[in-house]
Amino acid sequence: MHDRASPHFNLDGRTALVTGGASGIGAAAARLLHELGAKVVIADINAQAAEAALEETGAALHVTGDVADAESVERMVDEIHARLGRIDLVFNSAGIGDDLLPVHSQEPARWQRVVDVNLRGTYLVCRAAGREMLERGSGSIVNVSSIVGLGAFPGRSAYGVAKAGVIHLTKTLACEWGPRGVRVNCIAPAYTKTPMVRSLLERKIFDPATIERRTPLGRLAEQEEMARAAAFLLSDWASYITGAVLPVDGGWSAYGAAGDVDKGPPVQV
Ligand SMILES: NC(=O)c1ccc[n+]([C@@H]2O[C@H](COP(=O)([O-])OP(=O)(O)OC[C@H]3O[C@@H](n4cnc5c(N)ncnc54)[C@H](O)[C@@H]3O)[C@@H](O)[C@H]2O)c1
């Protein structure tokens, strides 16, 4: 493909489903995909927030449901097909955090719910939206993993298992659906300043300075930085990329040394 004439990418004419699009990374993505020309549908469990996000993001439509519930997902996808005819792009951002408890203290039902929303939800939405993409022979999906899916974080077993599962699901789908023209990738964000993280900061669950010192780029992420990575992977600019896991983490997952990154290399005399 030699497309020298188009220096900018756009998503004109595409219909994009953004789960969890009422808040945080999903809302930032909904806004950006709209700005790039897509017709955006927000799917969220929080109807009131989704309604408010319509105006704020420029999205065309919102549907309400629980991504962890198969019937709910089928209903949302059917409604989008009935109203807009097709889904070209999916950004699976719906997710919840966990209880920050060690495995032996976690309550099984809560553990399961975290896995269900983050992993089963991604699976169900890919499955429901992917069927029509496969029939048509085109489509692009971006799932949301996490640095917690790349390496173990004590106290985060449910979330970590789910986000590691999202990576494996992404790779499996990329292999199954690549021959049928559907690309599936995921991003692995680090700490991003969204409502989810702001509430953890307010409750002093973690100290931003500690994270900044552990991050080569020295700061937390903006949600728009996740949206831009997702938009790239969704777009035709990523036409030869599938099954990829893109860390959007300021270098967090690249760093393997002891101590703070800003101290520089240990000097051996
Ligand atoms: N913020 C971070 O630092 C960070 C880091 C790594 C990964 N992530 C992932 O990014 C995604 C977005 O996170 P965020 O920080 O923007 O969170 P957020 O809480 O701001 O937004 C999540 C959205 O998902 C919706 N949602 C929750 N459960 C749902 C369900 N069962 N069905 C449908 N919608 C549901 C919520 O109503 C909300 O609108 C999540 O998958 C999260 O795990 C976030």
Uncertain segments are none
Biggest sheet character: 7 strands, parallel
Q: In percent terms, what proportion of residues is strand?
A: 5-15%
Distance between the termini: 53 Å
CATH-level-2 architecture: 3-Layer(aba) Sandwich
Task: Please compute the radius of gyration using only Cα atoms.
Answer: 19 Å
Number of helices: 8
Broad CATH class: Alpha Beta
Instruction: Output the helix-strand order.
Output: EHEHEHEHEHEHHHE
Task: Reconstruct the topology from this structure.
Blueprint: E1 15-19, H1 24-35, E2 39-44, H2 47-57, E3 61-64, H3 70-84, E4 89-92, H4 108-136, E5 139-144, H5 157-177, E6 182-189, H6 195-202, H7 208-214, H8 223-234, E7 245-248
Parallel strand pairs: 1-2, 1-4, 2-3, 4-5, 5-6, 6-7
Helix pairs in contact: 1-8, 3-4, 4-5
List keywords for this structure.
alpha/beta, seven-stranded parallel sheet, 8 helices, 7 strands, binds nicotinamide-adenine-dinucleotide
Describe this structure in words.
With 269 residues, the chain is an alpha/beta fold. It has one domain (15-190, 223-248): NAD(P)-binding Rossmann-like Domain (Rossmann fold, 3-Layer(aba) Sandwich), CATH 3.40.50.720. It has eight helices and seven strands; from the N terminus they run βαβαβαβαβαβαααβ. It has helices spanning 24-35, 47-57, 70-84, 108-136, 157-177, 195-202, 208-214, 223-234; strands at 15-19, 39-44, 61-64, 89-92, 139-144, 182-189, 245-248. Strands 3-2-1-4-5-6-7 form a seven-stranded parallel beta sheet, with helices on both faces. Helix 5 links the parallel strand 5 (139-144) and strand 6 (182-189). The mean pLDDT is 95. Bound molecules: nicotinamide-adenine-dinucleotide. Nicotinamide-adenine-dinucleotide binds at residues 19-20, 22-26, 44-46, 49, 66-68, 93-96, 117-118, 121, 144, 146, 189, 191-192, 194-197.
